[in-house]
Design brief:
Radius of gyration: 17 Å
Number of helices: 4
Oligomer: single chain
Largest sheet: 2 strands, antiparallel
Structural class: mainly alpha
Order of helices and strands: EHEHHH
Helix content: 25-40%
Number of strands: 2
Length: 135
Amino acid sequence: RPIVSQGDVAVGRMNRRDVAALLVDLVGQPAAVGKTFEVVGLAGYPKGDAESLTAALERLQLDNNNNNGAEDDVLSLEQVTATYATMQQLLPGETQDSAALAMGQTYEQLDQGETGRLGERGLEKVEEAGLRTTG
């Protein structure tokens, strides 16, 4: 099930097939226009329908450049903090500490004390895995 939020505080995962299906669904959604948001998947729940997606999108604020930078367009610190606290409860696994994850490590591996496919956090072997860094 897609969980929609704003404030750049969502941490989670979503498989490629669900991302592709969501993008197709969003093409015909007027409620998504002019809004920046993130989506994570919540496993084990039904996908939901177009009406539930529309309702979630309608609750989101427009990007602040769509209303000439009006004050009511900007998410307040309280809104971002509340969203962050809620989203943290949806993290998979027991540890629920996204900052502790290494690149290529799953939450399940973190819970079991296992190293991810790219190595330990801060020592990830990105180039050896055939990945390129940006920047």
